[in-house]
Each structure stands twice: as C-alpha cells, then as structure tokens.
Write the structure tokens for this entry.
Amino acid sequence: MHLVLTMRVALFVTCLADLYRPQAGFAAVRLLESAGCRVEAPVQTCCGQPAYNNGDFSNARAIARQVIEAFGGYRHVVVPSGSCAGMLKVHYPRLFAEDPRWCERARDLSGRTHELLSFLHDVLEHRDFGACFSGCVAYHDSCSSLREIGVQRQARELLSRVTGLRLAELKDSEVCCGFGGTFCVKYPELSARMVDDKARSVQATGADALLAGDLGCLLNIAGRLRRIDSKVRVYHAAEVLAGMADGPGIGDRRHP
Amino acid sequence: MRSTAHSFRNNVHAALRDQGLQRALHRVSGGFADKRRAAVEALPEFEALRAAARAIKDHTLAHLDEYLECFETQVVAGGGTVHWAASAAAARRIVIDLCRQSGARRVTKGKTMVGEEIAINRALAEAGFEPVETDLGEYIVQLAGELPSHIIAPAIHKTRADIADLFRAHHGRQRELDSARAIVDEARDVMRERFLSADVGITGANFLVADSGSVVLVTNEGNGDLTATLPQRHIVLAGIEKVVPTLEDAGILLRLLARSATGQAFTAYTTVFTGPRRADDRDGPAAFDVVLVDNGRSAMLGSEYREMLRCIRCGACLNHCPVYGAVCGHAYGWVYPGPMGSVLTPLMLGLREAGDLPNASTLCGRCEAVCPVSIPLPTLLRRLRGRQHAEGQAPAASRRVLALWAALARRPRLYGFVMGLGVRLLAALAGRRGRLRRVPGAAGWTASRDLPAPAGQTFQAAWRRQRADHAR
Amino acid sequence: MHDDRANVLGAVRAALRQGGAQAAPPAPETPDERLRGRPTGPQPALGPDRIAHFTDQLDASAATWTRARTTTEAVEAVRQVAQSSGHSELVAADHPSLRMLPWPSAVSIRFDARAQEARCAVTLAELGIAETGSLLLCASPATPTLLNFLPDVLLCLLPTDAVVGHLEDAWRWLRAHRSPLPRAVNLVTGPSRTADVEQRLQLGAHGPRLLHVVLVDSGLDASIAWRRP
C-alpha cells in the first residue's frame, strides 16, 4: 500500500488503556507516529461493550452513536484492543440492524476501524520499529483477536522483529483467560479457574514476560500472576514493540 | 427431568470442589478437541461441508411443515406410524400408550436426549415398565441415578473405580473389574440378556429423512441397532428439527457429525431404518413408531433463536468450552449442558429457571468456531441477556453499576472528571506496591487475583496536557 | 390416534409466517425442487486408488482385512480368521452367493439365518464405501440384521468391484437396486466399540469385537440377490 506521509489517524484508546494503562496508549501513538502517521485522540469514553454484553442494547446504542459521531471525520480509526476493535467493526453494525441510517454509519465506521497490530502490519506494512527487548516472551491471543479480528500471525511477525526477543508459544493459547468483561466478577469461581489455568500455562513456558493486545486479558492474567508471586512481567504488546517496556509492568512495583 | 439450573452457582461451587470429578475432567481435558482438530486437518473439504450443512438446515427449517408432512407420508407408506406430540407430557402419553399396546414389560433404550428432555424413564417406571439404558455411558448414569453429564459421553465424570463399584452393587457378581476391558465385558454380558428380553425398544434419531421416511441412527456400540431390531416394537423419539430432505443431505451432515463429536471419520454403526419388518424379514419389529416432539421447538422456529434448531447434537461446543471443561455437565442442571444448553435450557424452561446459564460465559466464541452448522452461539447468549435486561431480571447490584457506567460513558466530560478522580484514588491506595490485594466491593476479583493499580493519570488527561504544552 | 398433529403443524406454519430472525435468508429452492434434484454436496477427495483408500479406512476403523484373488483364497482367509479367534464353527448368512463358495470340508459352516447362537458369523456386504471404509449391509431374509450384531466375530465378504467411492454412490445404488429401502441398511465401519470407561477405547461393546473383511477379486457373484416374492 502506498504510504502517504502524515496520514491522519484517530486513536480509539479504549477505556482500560485510558484509565488503567496509558502507557499502552502512548506506545500505540509512538508506533503510529514512527510509521508516519499524525495521531489525534478525540474526546472519548467507552466502546459500549459492558452494556452490550449485559443485554443493555439501548445504552449500548447510545454510546455507539457517540463513538460514531466522535470518529466520523477520520479516514482511519486505530484501536489497541481486539475486543474494542471487534465491538466497533463487528458489533456496531449489528446493534443498528433495525435502523438503516445508523447502520449505514456504523458500517462506514467499521470499514475505517483497525486493530492496532493489524493496522501496522497489514495497512501500513511497517513491521520493524527498531525496538529491543532481551528476554523470552509468551504472547496470549485474546478471543476477539483470534475470532473477530484475526491478528494471530501479525502479532507474532511484529514481535519477531524485536531485537533480542525470543517468543515462546503458550500451550492452549486458544483457550479464554476468563476475563470476559463482567463475567470475571459475576462468576468469580469460574473466572478464577480459567485465569489460573492460563497463568500456569504462562509459567510453564519459562517466559520472562507475557504480552497480549488486550488490556482486559492483561489485567486479569497479571492479577493472577501477581497473586501467585510469579515474576513474569506483563505488558501490552504495543509497549514492547515501541521500546517502552523497560519500566514496571502491569501490577508491578512502581519505581520511586 | 427436574432442573437444578436455578442453582447453577451452587452447582459450580460443588463441581469445582469435587475431587473425583476434577480428576476425571483432567484426564479427558482437551482429548475431544485434539481429536476433532486432527480430523478436521485431515479433511480439506471441511469448511465447504460446514457451509453446505448450514444451508441444508436453514432450507429445511424454512420449509419445516412440508418436510415433516413428506416424512410422515413416507413412513406411513412404508408401514410405520407417525405420532405428533406438542409437549413433553403428550410425548410421554404416546410412548406409554404404545408400550401398553405392546403388552410390554421391559423396554430397552438407546441414547436419546429428547428422551431425557421429556423424562421418559421416570414416566415408564411409574407406569410399571422397566426401562433399561443400553448405551454404556447412559447405563452407568442410570445405575448411579444421575443425569448424563455430556451428550456424547454421558459418564465422562465417572472413574473406572466408580463404575466398578456401581456394577458390583447392581449386578450381584463378585468380579474384580479392575480394568476397563473387564467392565465392558461384563456390561456386554449383562446387557445381552436385556436386549434379548425387551418387548419395546426406544431410540432417538440423528436424522429423519423426508423423502424415504427413514430414520438415521448412529452408535459406536451397536446398542441402537439391537434396541431397534430385537423387540416387537421400535419407537423413535425425535425433535421436529431432526428432519432433512434426502439421504444425500443426511450424508453431508454425517460427514461432519462424528468428526465434530469424537474425531472419527464415521461412527461404527450408521443405520438407515425404514419401517417395520417386511413379510419375509427374519428379524425386526412388527411395529415402527416415530414420535415427533415439538416441546418448544416451533416457538424457537418463529423467534430470533431459530438458528439453534440447526443443532445436530454433536457436542463439539461442550468439548471446546472452558466453562464446561471446568465443571462438566451436571452444573448446568438439566439435559443440555455447555453452550448449547445455555441457549436451550432458558428457551425451554424459561429464563427465570435458567437465568445464570446465558451469563456464565465470556462469549469467547470457541463454540461457534467449532459448530459444524455455524450456530452463532455467543450472539444467541447475548440475545438472552438482552431479554433478561429488558424484563428486569438481572440482579439489582449489577444493573445499578452498569447503568452508572453507561450514564458516565454517555457524558464524556463527567466521565473524564469522575474517572480521573477514581484512578488517582486507586493509585494512591495501591501506593508503590502497584497492586491491591483487597478492594471493597470487588471481592469477586480479589478473591483470586490482585488488582493492578492504574497509572494514576488517564491517557486523555495526559494527552491533552501534552497537546497544550506543545501549543505553547 | 388422537394426537397433536394439527397443533404441531399449525404451530410450525405460524412460526414460519412470523419469520424468525436469521442472518441471511436461505436459497429460494422449493422442497419439490430439492427432493427431485437431490443435490450432491462437497465430497472428501479420494486417492487415485479407490481400493487402497477403502483398505486404509478399514485400518483406521480397527477392522482387519484380507484381499483374496479367488474364492478359494477367500474361504481360506475365513477359515484362518475363525481359527485364530478360537472359533471352530461358523454360521453363515443363508445367501446363494455364500453357499456356492468352495468351502473346504474342514470348515464347519451352517447356513442359517438364526443369529442368536452364532459366535462367529460370515456374511456378505452389498457394497463397500471407500470414503469411510464402511460396509453396506441390507436387511433381507438371507442377511438378517441381527447377524451383523450378535456374534463376537463377524467376517464379511465383499467383491472388490462392489467398492464404490462415496456415500452418494451408495444412496444412488440403493435407490436403483433396493427400492423400496429395506427395513435396515447398516453402514458398518469397524467393530463395535466404546470409550465410556475413562475415555479409553475398548472394542466389542455390544456388537462384534472383531470385524474382518475379505475383499474378493473374482468369483463372488454379488448379483445374485435374494429374490423377493
């Protein structure tokens, strides 16, 4: 694809990155800028998944309309999360199936929305960001990344270009980590079992770090790893790709 | 069949702590999934077959009345009888009447989920008949007085020792039974006598073939055929959605069925039954009765849940579901477990009874990915959640929190302000440690996980500050 | 019999009138068109050698098999399998094609359709299906269904040229040669089995423990069907 310098891109940062791990958002910005984009971040809140997945379609639609409006003027909308990207790309059109006007607008946004790793790899075709990370890394595919967006291969290719990084494959990588939005607090025992299985898979790889493209999964797995006193550090994949993973990982002790 | 779906949380709690069950689950973990993957990888045409299967089902459902009538006409032309049951109670009545007509005492049964659905065993027993399960897994759970825990492997939760104990208690033989071989041999022996002495045989049907009036039944053991052939009457219990137009259509679905269920290319015994014995046949039933059961299926057909009727009961969704894999089938409380059960049970028994089921899922989508007829299970689960929300059935606390979140999300400035405060507070509470072991109101999370601390400043606040600095 | 026929059909029709949400409407084909057309769907590709594909599938299904060039070799194969599985008496389907085989006097064989006492049985398959490694056996006076299920050991003779490629070929053959369909058409793929005890595969659950197929290249006249009055 012919790269136009200073391509204008809107960042849908996601509520978890916004509130919990801005580093992931800034890493996404750095990656996009080094690939030649000019990044803007319109005022935003949430993609509406919590309402949607709990059956509150009315609120989900209200939030979706807000997002569609806020991101209407951008040729490219980039999302550092498989599940939020999936929400915009796959589910917004379904939310408005009965409303032709908004459905059209949702489909339009869907066509302009990209998950971050997919955007870098497939659209910008910019795969090497000159980053270094010395250590072994396990990569967790979020369910949306696997089944709604499809960025399994791209994530690994981008990570393979990071100098010093060794990639270990997680056993049962296709099995859900047990986050599932409100599921993890509504069905804590089931969620605990699933995240424990995932944490042990991570430990079994002997990896120094766990990466993923979704903060929900990362917070969940990091929470369990910390609880079992594991030394595995947890980052959003963007942080490693952008060379911004030398600080504390998710849930780690802060630097003074 | 009395449901305990309303006790799902308690059921889960018990299942997670059941050492024997967890050991059994650990032993089978991933086995079915691995076998299915191998079978799919060996068949390049798999995805094309899936698309064809879905199209067959959708077409048939769109003309269900015509195909059911065609099926009935053909069955009658072949000397059989078709009975129609609108409800479980009606189906039970029909079966009991037929057994009485045959002067039956002992009734053998092949595996039939519809049979469980209408609780036919209890009805038969209460009417004075002796129902005997012939599928080994079903027989084991029958001896244990339990429900099957998996639709393909009903006794998956039982260890060899459990089964040996059951056999010793019920068969009155004092054999050691220290190997699976010994158990199977004893079952074969005991069951042979029962097959031979049955007056009526009841089976399910994998497919009903409209253009020949045939019933397709698959088993690995051969018990289906012995159940259908030895007694003087063969009763087939089938949901109305089991009909397909032709043998060709059945063949396409058969190509997917065993591969999706157990990873086999084909089940050991795939039989096409058409009517009662002919004048010069040496064996076979004199009476062939098909009981078509509605029991909520026509309602599904006319609803936004029609796609659930594509289900061919292969069990692939169960085998790939992390929730099912953690707790097995009994936790779901009724006949149908796992993802398909989480849709069917609320539709058949109501959301008030089975309200937890559609919610106890992360919507990971693995079930949909492996379903041979591409049923959009996560979408159907979400739709059920939508119905619960609309009917005010979600628990109050979670409704309030979600409503609050939505209210904030719809007001970006307020959101920014409130969230900004919130994350500063949480970060302060966590201090240098970077995480919290306990957070009031979030015990669901912190029971098993630390809560990582947020950075303390939101991305948007930092971003706007940066832009403002830049502008100066 | 009074039952819910009108009720159920009425409910189904009402449901169809209502619509029911679907992702995409199905093709506009009518039942009539489909029943007449009997479209063939995607089929698994077979290798260039259909018989080799068939025997590979037999192996995969835990059936054992012998290829006999002549009927003499065929009956010898039967004798060997019976002997090595510890059976001195054979019960055979009472089929003219089996009767006319050159059974050696050493073989104790009874042409008797009563399967109840048979421990080791010999029968004849109508077709073999290469796609799945299945034997197609039809219920008939000569070949009652129970003969396929009650014995411990089942030996099945099959002319090599009766091996067809796919399931569709079998359905077509049935419609051409066995119409109306027999009471039971068995597609048998390997011996009886169960994994219900700790997910470990055991053969011989209720049906035969051993299924041995004898493919016969020449001399086995499968065209002699049991003629119905």
Observations:
- The mean pLDDT of chain B is 95.
